[in-house]
Amino acid sequence: MDSKKTFSRRHFLQYLGLSAVSIASTYTGLAAFTQRASASEDNDAYEQLPEIFNPTLHTATDADQLLLSNGFSYGVIAAYGDTINNSGDTFGFNSNYTSFFPFPNSKNEAFLWVNHESGQYPWLIDRSKPIEWGQQKQLLYEQGGSLLHLKKDAFGSWKLVDDSPLARRISGLTPIELTGPARGTSTVNGGTRVQGTFANRGGSKTLWNTQLTGENHFEATCRDAGLALSHYGWIVEIDPFNKQKKPVKHTALGRFHHGSASMTLNASNQIVVYMGEDSPSGFVYKYVSKDTWRDGQDTENLLTEGILYAADFIQGRWVELSLSNVRKMLQSFTYQVPESMYKSKEVLLVQFTSQSDVLTYANEAAQIIGATPCDRPAELTLHPVDKSVYITYTQNTSRGNLHGQIIRLKENGSTTFESETFIAGGRQSGFSSPASLTFDKNGNLWVGSDLATDQLNTGAWSEFKNNGMYLIHHSGAANKTKQFASAPTEAALSGVSFTELQDTIFLSVNHPGSAGAGTDKPTSQWQHKFGDKNPRSAVVMITR
Asked: pTM here?
């Protein structure tokens, strides 16, 4: 071990002030004995972290542990394979986005929604063997989402109710209705009901307290399970409090690699949903409902009828993804189809003959109408006060964008906006490749990095070590960035959500040891079961 690495590691542990006991506090309930803020205290995590200029220099580590800043500890709520209800359902694979739903008129019970973005299927490493139905079923079951039932214990800590009749799984096996313009059309093979949801990454709470979850990179699962591509890549709505209300996929919000979503109201009381496309040249989208909404009003048509736009950052405008706009460009004598589409004008004119075609092939439609491709706009969130949109451009190495940046977008009117770089990743800010993004009530911006497994601890990213969770000052000043947590080996931290008082933080630890998945040489053992060395993704609660 070289002297630089030894210093960095020692400095990190001294900075955190963690003992071996607090590092290992998982199912033991040790978090229950930590000091918690009372309702009267200002639970501002940023102010509770030490002042550190350039967190990479002082806190980066490659330890196979979830490490937190001094004074914070964690306990595992659920890890892959844990039983979550009285039906024997189990927690899915690769946990990601989370959302906290307190029970009405109760401070001691809540639901926690957790996305699962991929399945564990090591048998698919050998592509020469046919995939059996049992393997396909496991692949589909492990994805989607888990609705967990939580209760506070005698010490005031949230715990999983693993025999709850209220908890449930929404998976790749769950029947789901289609809504909106593409429902029943030839574009989706006439489908009105489809099988399941999977590849779930980001999401958003609705204003009426339901959950939106976005389907991200769905192609591999469709191929391996023999399912139609056009049935996936949508936004799904789930009602946590009404088990009888079936999940629906809203085709009016477009089909693409959904990285995240965020909902608000505009000045006319129309529903607005901002969405990011988690692709190296993805687009930023905005949906605006046809109808207006007020609290207590029927919500049935708010996500089924409206206009979908894509962002043109060069001109600062929202361009409508309409059939007329697409065909107008394709019929223009001067328009040239981008080479990356590998299609001619003639082929595209046959492909785009209805609005359902535009929504189902939203990425291609956005390219045609002149929206701006971005460097993986994986996630976005809304500022709690001024409602400006913050968007992570994670990175795009093919264009020399190695460390990514966070963009701020502010609306000027219904179809125009201004945008600017809020903060850039790199050595000066101490983090690289921002992906997950969440504001707390104090205006702190929580940013999780997402360096790929083959980038961690190598080349231009070597000094950043493992992925981390960072708090960004509201000014966006790079020298005010603070590191809150460091992830286990090859994991990413995401899905930050809070209780109402912000005295508990929920966080997903996603894909630890991903490089060793399916092999007899695991590269991480974080959250392994006794007698099993394989790592497990999990969702944890963090308290002070």
From this structure: 0.92
